Amino acid sequence: MKRILPLLIIISFTALNTAAQYYNGQVRIDSLDRSFLFQVTDATPRLHAHRFYTWFKSGRIHTTEGGYYGKLLHGYYKVVDKERRLLEEGRFKQGRRVSAWRTWHENGRLKTITRKRFWDGAWRIDAYAPDGQRIKKGVEKNNQFTGRQVEMVKDSAVVVLYKKGIRQPAAKK
């Protein structure tokens, strides 16, 4: 009995923190600070060993490489905070991120826009500070950033160039 009581407390606590509702291919997961709204599919795509798939099972969203166990995310995907402000928005196609993805700062200003390039699968990234200033622009492929990033040094902004994830030396004048 002493072992069962803590287990019941943990289960009831986690049940209070998140709740998933599923209806006709649409899912809503509510937690204390945010809600996830998305669509799922029963389709079974041809899997690729080195691609990541996002799927829903047992009230949670999972991401795995080369496979899945549950229902693949397919269609719209939105994350809102407890005040119902939009934090993230995008689309999935058979468990894979597609099209443009946007995130927002809590003040409602755009935080990032990422768009997938169809010819090489790289993500074009534009990132913004809470005041709306662009702080990053470039392309990310295989988790390596190529492009210009604004870095704050003391009280001034410095533009830094990256190629395949490696910071490039400043150009000589």
UniProtKB/TrEMBL annotation:
Native organism: Niabella pedocola
Keyword hit for Signal: yes
Signal peptide: 1-19
Taxonomic placement: Bacteria, Pseudomonadati, Bacteroidota, Chitinophagia, Chitinophagales
Record's keyword terms, sorted: Signal
Protein name listed in UniProt: MORN repeat variant
